[in-house]
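hi! just following up on the protien thing from before. the input was this:
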Amino acid sequence: MNKLPTIDYKRLDKLIRLALEEDLGDSCDVTTAAVILPGTKATAVLICKQDGVAAGLEVAYRVFARQDPGCIWNPKVKDGDFCPKGTIMAEVSGQAAALLTSERTALNFLQRLCGIATTARRYADAVKGTKTEILDTRKTTPGWRNLEKYAVAAGGASNHRIGLYDRIMIKDNHRELAGLEGDQGITRSVQRARAMFPKLQVEVEADHLEEVGEAIAAGADFVLLDNMTNEQMAEAVKLNAGRVKLEASGGITLERVPSIAALGVDYISVGALTHSVKSLDISLDIKLN
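and the predicted 3d structure came back as:
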């Protein structure tokens, strides 16, 4: 499994606060307040209802702890672990009212992050035995990027750039709006990028083989092969001859991944790791102490 990126706890705690405020409104958990006697203690277990990969256990804990700072959290698995259906992922004990109020928010975080990790594992498994790595993209839920990229890594795939700040990625729209389309547009774009941000890596999006050749000659660090057929990508790999890193992107499906990896590209970026995953089914069972 890849090294997990660091969770931004300041951002996470803000997300948790907003999620709970969304659920509680300007009042409280009125059902729990009406039914549960103050001081009642309980223990809850979080159970996988289907096979999946764990991710976000610490996130779930922080939801419960926000409502009951004295709760006792006992994880039974680690992020990145495969959890067969029926696995108890964690146990939490504390104030019954706090557990009930936190339940849905904690599960919303955990189920989505486990869903991402599970999807990432499927894609990572599909390139085993090759040199190719699976990458995520910036197609993430607004405000959740740090968490979702964490979940991707927990699943065994890798992170692409985190945002617009940590890698230069020159696409056709940049060249068009900069008046740099056409003859030597890629070369001039790379030159401008190197001059302004000499410490950053540069990636160029290429739609056809002529652009691949120009990006390589211009000294790009990465070339993104955008929506190319397998035949076109095979030609790009041959043309490149190992000089820069090649990334396949666009129209990627799980079924297609093994054949792309066999071509010899370095990376395959998959927006589906984060933009269209299905949350893992996880339940919370609770009982009185």
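The mean pLDDT is 96.
The radius of gyration is 23 Å.
cheers
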